[in-house]
Amino acid sequence: MMFTVVVPLYNKAKSIGMCIESILKQEMVDFELVVVDDGSTDGGADVVKSFDDARIRLVRKRNGGVSSARNRGVAEARGEWVAFLDGDDVWNRFHLQTLAELHRKYPEAGVLSTDYAALTTDEGLERILSPAPEGGGDGMVKDYYLRLLKGQRVLCSSSVAVRRDCLMEAGGFDERLARGEDMDLWARLYERFVMAVSGKVTAFYRTVIGDVRATERKGDVRRYDVYHFRPGFWKFSYRNMFQYRVIWRYLKHFLVYGQYKNFMLLFFRHNVYLLQIIRYGILARKSGLMF
């Protein structure tokens, strides 16, 4: 089982070194690392070049967004499996080994993931990344949307590995989307392939205190996954409930943060669903689900 690790890089010179170090320290050594420089201007590519390891390939391209960079990495991949890691995130040294063990346990799965956690500081990082990971058991994901509605973690872009042929069949990341591109792909993969997850925490995504929260950043909602949702109207499903929840939360968010243009665009895109949003919201709360 060989992994291609794909790392999209855009102006993360301060963190890409630590990211790569966490990959090179993996207990499982049968992998290649493809770093896709998406038009960085801060010297991040030079940091990548400073690593003397034959498994590393640096691919440079014009800036096209994170989905474009990830898709380019998939196109360059030589491994059967593609594992993703963002340029400011890190892995515990048992991450790839945990994914390989999960594959042996569930060989029918086309999507694998470990559990993940937030990283707010680099202090004591070695104590997190070196020991054998702790966490719950393994299992197949048969209730993806219900898990999300319960507030449970399932997949993230730095914990997941996907068989390359499954990625190609699903169409990869949608390069039209500027937000929600990862959730969009996970949904398409869930509809087509078996997912297996480990409860062991081996991936850590970075949060920067004092930075502008992603929820407060402005963008055109027409490039969000929520704008393109098409939930079912009559038949009940947790997929519908999840999509209605996301629509509702974005509408509230745009009002709170004064993004009135985005509010109007999303409202008129999905106003036909307003009664369904209310109905599903009531059902969710009666069931103890997050809405």
UniProtKB/TrEMBL annotation:
SUPFAM superfamilies: Nucleotide-diphospho-sugar transferases (SSF53448). Signal peptide: none annotated. Pfam families: Glycos_transf_2 (PF00535). CDD domains: Glyco_tranf_GTA_type. Residues 4-113 form the Glycosyltransferase 2-like domain. PANTHER family: GLYCOSYLTRANSFERASE, GLYCOSYLTRANSFERASE 2-LIKE DOMAIN-CONTAINING PROTEIN. This is Glycosyltransferase family 2 protein. It comes from Candidatus Onthomorpha intestinigallinarum.
